Input
Amino acid sequence: MTSQLTFAKDPWSWNIEDLVAAVCHSSLFQAAGCRLEDLPNAQSLEAQLRDQEVTGATFLTALDSRTLRSELGIQNLGQRTALLAVIELLRQHSTAHKQHAATIGVQALDINQSGSSANTTYANTDGRKRLKTTHIATVPLHVVQEPPLVDGTGQWDHLLRWEQEQQHVISVDDIAADAESESEDEEEDMEERSGSGEPEKMPVDTAVEAQSRSRLSQDQVVNIINERLDYYTNAWKPNHGVIKGDEINYQPETMWQEAEANGHRQALIKKYETDVLYYKHRLDQLCEEIIKSPGNTVDRVRYQCRNLEVTVNSLELSEWLLSIYRLDPVDDSDDSGDEEIRHNNLINISGENTSARGAVRTIPPRSQQRFDVIDLGSPPESSQGDMEDLLVESSPPPELPAVHRHPSPPDVDHTPDLAVAETIEPGAHAHPQNPQTTSTATKRSRGHLGDEPQHASIASARRWTWSDLTSTRDRKRIVTKALYEMNFNERETIRTRLGTVGKAEMIREIVACVRMLAQNGNKMPGILPRDLPKIVTLTRLFLSCWLGNNYLRIEPTELHLQDLGQRLQDGSPDLGTFWDYLNTVMTTTFSPTALQNPERPSQAEIIEISDDDEPSSRPSARQPTGRPQMSQHPTTIILD
Output
């Protein structure tokens, strides 16, 4: 195939336009025998060739694998190999390049060097300098031969005996021993400087140190290598290390669709599988080389580990692209939920997550509900200590009236707003109609908070017990209680996640994570390893809300996960309600101000009652029944 190629002129004399037309807009790569998946992007290659002003002569002589990666920005090994094959093909068809290669070893004469006295220089009519050689006859010098000296004939010859006794032969072993002792002294000085806090500039090692001379054990060296590998892996993200302005806009969904439409997806899968195996093998070789010659200090080992960063970045990029193209297509006969799951797996993780508007959730009016919701910020059947907090501070503790509570059975699957309603029926000793009675009842605020536990304080959340919350399936308070038991870093991670990831994006992540947990998986396609723990924490928080228990501490069963995955596929429950409540409670109960004052009640839990502004003609029946006369100063009621 290569013999059938014909060019209008020698590739050596090509200008930029000729080179771009031949390399980027022709079948030159196929003629060189390159694979389809190794072809570089034509538009990107054309832009790089024009920016660098590469001509035919430069393309044939100055480009190698390292230059292609650094100057033209071609990071893929297969694409660089394909370009080198094209360069070799053009060299075979270039007569000028063959002449250049034949004469490259001839060195031009340097006419600027000053000659000896035997050479004379003159200029001809053309202005060129020529060198004229003059032969000069030399007379050999006379050599004076002296007879050998005889010991003991001189006046001071007796002193030579002492000099001969002090002479000794210096062997090569002594030189090596002195050099070794000097190197050990230098290494001790380097350790002292590093221990004193002075910055150490590590020189490039040109000699290989033996493992037996290293002061670090093999386990220490392996731990240092693993620590640097974890650091490089966690620091990686798409376009990591790319020069600003040369970033590639990765769009996983578009990439998958284009590869599937063109029929290249399986070829790309094989390509990236091969790349992953190559980079893993290369990484193992580099690590073995470091273990064989680690050096004597921790800083020396870390300095050598810098060679691993490029390989780790290439490995992470190949694995990330492989996870995208490995996703299976969805058949037309499948349910629409499978298409949504595949869309969720193709989440754009290039760092530009945009928050989408969620659907507006309609809450049914209170008249359509079966029971009136009474919520004082604490679960029903609270302890006597919690009831005392609801009493008026200026009055003595009265006797509580007989009140029968009948908690309604929780409907886990059809509760519209994650609330649990309860009814209160007055007993035989309810409030009498006589306003002068001395019977005293606990003053409660009916309808002040409603079903709004998001206004509870941190102190109220601390008093809630899991037994009460799980028995009543109080989902909102379960979420608040779980957030309260998190440490500071976990809570702030959720706050940051809510601010950076949109509502629709987080809902898709939770749906995909539930599916992953149901399949006992540990990876989500298109998700960075450092983001996976954050998504799992949010998913477990939703499991606590839906299943009515603390699933941040216990593991959900496979049956629960499969059932929840099926319900999410059917559109129930509404994850938008969970996101709204979580976003609200992070700005109220767990706001930065509330976290600084955890014992302070929230503003919604404080009610001020004052009789100063009431007119004297107002009937006394408007006053609370059976309550003693109150003082004239405002009274504070704290609800929790």
In short: The chain has a mean pLDDT of 69. The first strand starts at residue 119 and ends at 123.
